[in-house]
Amino acid sequence: MFSRRQLLGAGAALVSTSAWAKTSNMGLPDAAVMETAKTQPPLHPTTGPDYQPVVTLNGWTLPHRMNNGVKEFHLVAEPVEREMAEDMTAYLWGYNGQSTGPTIEAVEGDRVRIFVTNRLPEHTTIHWHGMILPSGMDGVGGLSQPHIKPGQTFVYEFDLVKSGTFMYHPHSDEMVQMAMGMMGLFIVHPKDPEFMRVDRDFVFMLNAFDIDPGSYVPKIMTMTDFNLWCWNSRLFPDIDPLVVSKDDRVRVRVGNLTMTNHPIHMHGYDFEVTCTDGGWVRPEARWPEVSIDIPVGAMRAYEFDAKYVGDWAIHCHKSHHTMNAMGHDVPTLIGVDAGGITRMIRKVQPEYMSMGTAGMADMGEMSMPLPDNTVPMMAGWGPHGPIEMGGMFSVVKVRDGLASDDYADPGWYENPPGTQAYEWTGELPDFAKAASAETKITPKPATPAKS
Ligand SMILES: [Cu+2]
User: Are 364 and 386 in contact, with CB atoms under 8 Å apart?
Assistant: First the structure.
């Protein structure tokens, strides 16, 4: 057995970051630390132009301090323990106590000064993906700057010349450090508070890990066959819902630093793609979608008006990405008569069940004993039974009359009578007998709505 210290890597001192932040400040801004994987409330601006702050799913925004008009942030690259689900913790590398790292928020026209302290067992840098900045601030180790050695603090300083959605990640032993979870989002709000204003603005990173059941550290050499597909290093059913008030204008920004694309599909709505890492999409160039493919090394944002109340699934449409830890070398048993083999195995193992001969839905209903520190392949229990999902899945919950900063889970939506699929019992129910197509249908305009 390896001890946790060995797993974290030689030289990774297990000093509490908060204790360290207090004792070795040296004039640096406080390095705030987040201890929980719960979605934190939006951090409203206290100086400068107003903006609608983002909400990072199962994440948080890094506080800053003002120093002579410059916004100063302090990121600490360090080993972290991330709760990926209620029963599963991973030993990752991240920033300020968490992986995915905190979201940085600032405003177009700001000058930012970002202190980066390296508490990893090896050197690192930070690249500011998508930013327009001086070449020497671009964070490519060896090319634009020396690598930041363990124990060193480097300073990045540049003007935010454009608004939009950017990402940050190491450009230093990049394959290892990104496989260990080092990444985050950098949101630059428009200087004009009315430009592209929305009522709710959700952000999250896509990530993929390969962590064997019962172990804690991602296998860094895995290139394609990952077994955990996450949003902000979190797995369904423990990804928080996206809570929205009816008629809100809503934006969802998704960043992808995994090694494959993810078609993110949202039910109940059509929406428009409004932003890429390159900038805002002009109104006349936006296009309608119900699934938006997030390419590798890119982000996409989409917007919609929350007209339809309900519980609407949002998920990656690659069906293996909405499953938790699973092996891919399991034989297909659909249509196989397993009776004989089951009887034989039960002679030595009386509790043995054969599964999979009629599909795998049983997996969502049964709770079988699992190794320590993993999550069931299919999970989640809704108001009508097992949801049979995992990984990259959550629910957009649109409700009437929520307060503007209310992101608390409102529970399950209760479908009004006559609006839910029903079992056929041989006769139409009263609401269906009364239904008349002529009185109900209001055609949706064929042209996209202006925003
Ligand atoms: Cu996916």
Answer: yes
Q: Is the pLDDT of residue 1 over 50?
A: no
Residue 62 has pLDDT above 70, yes or no: yes
Instruction: Quick: pLDDT tens for 276-318.
Output: 999 999 999 999 999 999 999 999 999 999 999 999 999 999 9
Between the CA of 208 and the centroid of ligand 1 the distance, in Å, is 9
Ligand 1 mean position, distance from CA 266 (Å): 13
Cα of 321 from ligand 1 centre, angstroms: 5
- Return the number of other C-beta atoms located less than 10 Å from residue 354's C-beta: 15
CB 264 within 8 A of CB 254: yes
> What is the whole-number distance in angstroms between the Cα of residue 392 and the centre of ligand 1?
7
For residue 359, give the nearest of 404, 319, 303, 414 by alpha carbon.
Answer: 319
Q: Could you report the per-residue pLDDT of 84-124, keeping only the tens digit for each? A: 999 899 999 999 999 999 999 999 999 999 999 999 999 99
Give the phi and the psi of residue 440 in degrees, each rounded to 5. -100, -35
Cβ neighbours of residue 204 under 8 Å, at least 6 residues apart? 56, 57, 58, 59, 100, 185, 231, 232, 253, 254, 255
Residues 100, 105, 109, 115, CA torsion sign:
negative
Ligand 1 center to residue 263 CA distance, Å?
Answer: 6
- Distance between CA atoms of 92 and 83, rounded to whole angstroms? 10
Rounded Cα distance, 94 and 12, in Å: 13
Q: Which residues contact 117 (CB under 8 A, 6 or more apart)?
A: 28, 31, 74, 75, 76, 77, 152, 153
Distance 265 CA to ligand 1 centre (A): 10
Q: What's the 315 CA to ligand 1 centre distance in angstroms?
A: 8
Distance 230 CA to ligand 1 centre (A): 9
pLDDT number for residue 442: 67
How far, in Å, from the CA of 227 to the mean position of ligand 1? Answer: 11
Cβ within 8 Å of residue 155, ≥6 positions away: 113, 114, 115, 116
Distance (angstroms) between ligand 1 centre and the Cα of 8 equals 28
- What residues pair up with 189 in beta bridges, in sequence order? 107
Look at residue 79 and tell me whether its pLDDT is greater than 90: yes
Contact 110, 243 (CB under 8 A): no
